[in-house]
Write a structure and sequence with these properties.
globular, 8-stranded mixed barrel, hydrolase, 8% helix, EC 2.-.-.-, cell shape, mainly beta, L,D-transpeptidase catalytic domain-like, 43% strand, glycosyltransferase
């Protein structure tokens, strides 16, 4: 009989658009919060619960160092080639992070991770 137990780490993400923060949880415990940029008023970040459905390294264009695509089409968590935009409402609905932060997040969370986006 094999008594080696594998501990499964379950990650989730909560994005507070009003506070412009992304908070990472592991097994329900807060691990870290990151500053973000969100959608501008004409293209707001959608509210709701989504899943990470794909990931990419160096996706090109304005998406910075990493891309984590959400189950909401055309919306993702990504890096930025404009770090001065972090903390502002300037995107086309996506969640922007500093490249160093999105790289860290990319390595921690798997495809299937739940992402809850709220405004309060």
């Amino acid at each position: 009989m094999d008594y080696n137990l594998r501990i499964v780490q379950t990650y989730s993400i909560t994005i507070h658009t009003a506070a412009r923060t992304l908070t990472l949880y592991r097994n329900g415990q807060r691990i870290k919060s990151y500053p973000i940029a969100v959608g501008k008023p004409s293209t707001p970040t959608p509210k709701g619960t989504f899943k990470i459905v794909n990931k990419a390294v160096n996706p090109g264009g304005p998406f910075g160092a990493r891309w984590l695509g959400l189950s909401k089409p055309h919306i993702g968590i990504h890096g930025t080639n404009n770090p001065l935009s972090i903390g502002k409402a300037v995107s086309n609905g996506c969640i922007r992070m500093y490249n160093k932060d999105v790289i860290e997040l990319y390595h921690l969370v798997p495809i299937g991770t739940t992402v809850k986006i709220i405004s309060i």
